[in-house]
Amino acid sequence: MRMLEQDTAHWAGLGFLLDTYGMDLSDTISRYLQPASSSATSSTSEHRSWALITGASDGIGVSFAHELASEGFNNILHGRSPTKLATVETALKAQYPHISTRLFVLDAYPCSVPAIDDYVRGLAKDGLCIRVLVNNIGGGALVSPTFQPLAQRTAEEVQKLFDLNVGFPTLLTRALLPVMQEPSLVLNLGSFVSHIPGPWMTVYAGSKAFNMSWSRSLWIELRAGGKDVEVMGLVVGEVQSGGHPGPVGLVMCSSRTLARSALDKVGCGRHTVAPWWRHAAILAAVLCLPEALLNWSMVRTTRGMMEEEKRLLEVDKRNL
Ligand SMILES: NC(=O)c1ccc[n+]([C@@H]2O[C@H](COP(=O)([O-])OP(=O)(O)OC[C@H]3O[C@@H](n4cnc5c(N)ncnc54)[C@H](OP(=O)(O)O)[C@@H]3O)[C@@H](O)[C@H]2O)c1
User: What family, per the record (predicted)?
Assistant: First the structure.
């Protein structure tokens, strides 16, 4: 049994190396940059392909918006802060004057099904050619403290982590899929923690594992139904962002690098990809370790982070 577990781990590691080096890149993101079938001759920018990016007011979401705009996609920028979204929109318009933008302002917590459905109905009514959805919103640090034993979490914190990481992306995708025009693309942001779940972040780790399993299941389902929709789960390591500041280096890339690497993997034929090559290599190596060693190391590193976070929260409290 132990041998089998170890073999499985090795294969998982090899899978991630294949994701980086062994993929067929004959299709690219430009496949999704087509005018609406009903307006193939129209040259107005409104009729070009649209991408909807959730959590587009900061971090990786902003970078996806820029990278997609640089490819020629119109952008629907989702977020909860109209001011932050307007700043992103102004920067996009200055850099890519040929694209159109719209803002989708909605707090994803608590997740409101009528609000999501209403907004999507409006998009359908306007006849936008939506071909790309980036389910970027999420994170573990959207509740404070980030690291906490499950039994000490409030029910509200648990619900918030579910809503932001699972509920909102699932319900938005459910509403948007019938409105999107084929061929279309859905990208779901995951995390290393879906493959290496550590302690004191159980809800976040579980949610991110859901994101990956859900991506695969959805892609199979849509293909079985004859739909031309590509669904890809992105396994993300450390990325510099609004919610995760830190210096870019050996293991941490910039949000732009992550978004560009992800778009470069579109069409590779895999449902789960670690977009940045160094993240892929790290994950491949880590997944080859014996599980007991991995667990021991996760306890050590996460405990360190939890204690540091506790110390910083105490300092904040004293300074109030
Ligand atoms: N950065 C990393 O190291 C890392 C690692 C692994 C996985 N990921 C994944 O990558 C994705 C993006 O992470 P990030 O680091 O770029 O995050 P971030 O910098 O914290 O940005 C999160 C985005 O989500 C929005 N948001 C948060 N709560 C919201 C709410 N209640 N309603 C509507 N919008 C809300 C934020 O809006 P505001 O601007 O209003 O706050 C912001 O636009 C997440 O799914 C995360 O799990 C990130």
Answer: Belongs to the short-chain dehydrogenases/reductases (SDR) family.
Structural domain count, the chain: 1
Q: Is 204 in the active site?
A: yes
Q: Whose CA is nearest to atom 2 of ligand 1?
A: 239
Mutate to test the pocket of ligand 1, among 236, 238, 279, 305 (most ligand atoms within 8 A of CB): 236
The whole-angstrom separation of Cα 178 and Cα 184 is 11
14: domain CATH number is: 3.40.50.720
Q: How many C-beta atoms surround the C-beta of residue 79 within 10 A?
A: 25
Are 54 and 134 contacting, i.e. CB atoms less than 8 angstroms apart?
yes
Centre a 10 Å sphere on the Cβ of residue 260 and count the other Cβ atoms it contains.
18
Residue 21 pLDDT exceeds 60: no
Over range 49-74, report the average pLDDT.
Answer: 98
Owner of token pair 């694209």: 99
Whole-number Å distance between alpha carbons of 69 and 137: 19
pLDDT of residue 320: 78
119 annotated active-site: no
Catalytic residue among 96, 109, 119, 204: 204
If you measure from the C-alpha of residue 293 to the centroid of ligand 1, how many angstroms do you get, rounded to a whole number? 30
pLDDT tens digit sequence for 85-97? 999 999 999 999 9
Q: How far is the CA of 18 from the centre of ligand 1 (A)?
A: 28
Q: pLDDT tens, 226-262? A: 999 999 999 999 999 999 998 999 999 999 999 999 9
Domain hosting residue 29, numbered range: 2-319
